[in-house]
Amino acid sequence: EPEVTQTPSHQVTQMGQEVILRCVPISNHLYFYWYRQILGQKVEFLVSFYNNEISEKSEIFDDQFSVERPDGSNFTLKIRSTKLEDSAMYFCASKGDGDYEQYFGPGTRLTVT
Amino acid sequence: AQSVTQPDIHITVSEGASLELRCNYSYGATPYLFWYVQSPGQGLQLLLKYFSGDTLVQGIKGFEAEFKRSQSSFNLRKPSVHWSDAAEYFCAVGAGYGGATNKLIFGTGTLLAVQP
Question: What is the mean pLDDT, run by run of 10 residues, along chain A of 113 residues?
């Protein structure tokens, strides 16, 4: 069964460093998403992406964040200058055209020290 | 604004007992509703979804949920809980511009513990 994959599973970085989280969505999906979950809290929407542009973003998704689909398979989330409060699990999700459900990857745990 | 409320933060049930996890939503139009399960250290797995039609929906692992528009609820049920059901359960509503499921709004989750 097709699935969303994410790499790395765990990333440790120092405050102020740039990180790139990578996702490979399900191959025929057209809608892509990033969510985050701070430890012990609920899952929060960050951004949605369709047709090579952001379709919606949350207040969390400020200028420090960016997304890109650099090729036909990868979908990345970049945090330019990480802060301690960026420590969280980051989930990628994708959705097919005409579908209602989003399929989630296993997540990348980001730890900022 | 759209929101999801899961009033029970933590529930403990005995193995074999029945289970009901509560979810209330706030959404102006017909909601698209989902239940996801998250085992420790794992990602989110879709249990079931409701878009339209029959208000009682069946999902994986023996779970079901009932949509009640009058109560703005979408409670998750299972007649007999297994120890492997211990996990965190999230209710979500689809929302956003450009499509009713352009983003998911999640509740705060209910952590289920199962006693032997």
Answer: 91 97 94 93 93 91 95 93 97 89 93 98
